[in-house]
Automatic annotation (TrEMBL):
Keyword Transferase: yes
Key word Transferase present: yes
Record keywords: Transferase
Domain N-acetyltransferase: 105-239
Organism: Paracoccus aestuarii
GO MF: acyltransferase activity, transferring groups other than amino-acyl groups
SUPFAM superfamilies: Acyl-CoA N-acyltransferases (Nat) (SSF55729)
Name under which the protein is recorded: GNAT family N-acetyltransferase
Pfam families (alphabetical): Acetyltransf_1
Gene3D superfamilies linked to this entry: 3.40.630.30
Domain of life, per lineage: Bacteria
Length: 239
């Protein structure tokens, strides 16, 4: 299962690698320490076994391990990578919600904001959740329109996130709530703030990605009206 073309394009454009190189049917991302999504090769057209070799060689040239990000319906590529001893890990779901599902009620006062550039406290919240400065460079380099989400609860800045628009689609990334303030509804209000901001900036669709192992986050998003629009996993050689 993969997203439709507009959603797939927004998924890539709003979380860009520091550099990309085309290797036949693959686009290989240079992550520069910013995580697997931007350090992977993704199929962007017809590919051959030689293209897989070229993508692996490009990873090696950048000092990255071989890594492919594959949509769940691409049986041919999954089979070719398995034949090379690569196995899937970190299955991830792309979810989408109707914009009206998130903009049907007003936000409580001073609960969530969409601003740019991010405040120092937002960067601290991201870092506390493992979204390192190297990963934060990704959304610093993403094209506008974009915004940093700030969530507040009990007069405390407790959540941070990122939203950016490509075409009609707004993608939410890097949502983090400090542990002491989780399961109190803050992530939901941040999602709603992202939707209001996105609607005001011309987006008609809103989406995000969440690891399939993250059941609590999936439950929050499902409760807001998000449903599965695609699935992918990373494929790498067995350790």
């Amino acid at each position: 299962m993969r997203p439709d073309p507009a959603l797939a394009a927004a998924f890539e454009a709003t979380w860009p690698a520091s550099q990309t190189i085309r290797c036949g049917g693959f686009l290989v991302g240079r992550g520069a320490g910013a995580g697997e999504r931007v350090s992977s090769a993704v199929a962007v057209g017809p590919w051959t076994d030689a293209d897989i070799d070229a993508a692996c060689a490009q990873h090696a040239a950048w000092g990255q391990p071989p890594l492919f990000r594959v949509w769940g319906d691409d049986a041919a590529l999954i089979g070719a990578l398995r034949a090379r001893g690569m196995r899937a890990h970190t299955p991830t779901m792309v979810m989408e919600a109707p914009m009206e599902a998130l903009t049907d009620r007003a936000l409580p006062p001073v609960t969530a904001f969409a601003i740019w550039p991010p405040l120092a406290i937002q960067r601290q919240i991201w870092a506390a959740g493992g979204i390192t400065p190297a990963r934060q460079v990704v959304f610093d380099s993403a094209p506008h329109p974009k915004a940093a989400l700030l969530g507040r609860i009990r007069d405390r800045a407790a959540g941070a996130g990122f939203v950016a628009i490509h075409g009609p689609v707004a993608m939410i990334h890097a949502v983090e709530v400090l542990p002491a303030y989780r399961r109190q509804g803050l992530a939901g209000w941040m999602m709603r703030q992202a939707a209001f901001w996105a609607r005001d900036h011309g987006a008609t669709r809103i989406a995000l990605a969440v690891a399939e192992a993250n059941g609590p986050a999936q439950a929050v998003y499902a409760g807001l009206g998000f449903t599965a629009a695609g699935r992918y996993a990373y494929h790498a050689p067995d350790a």
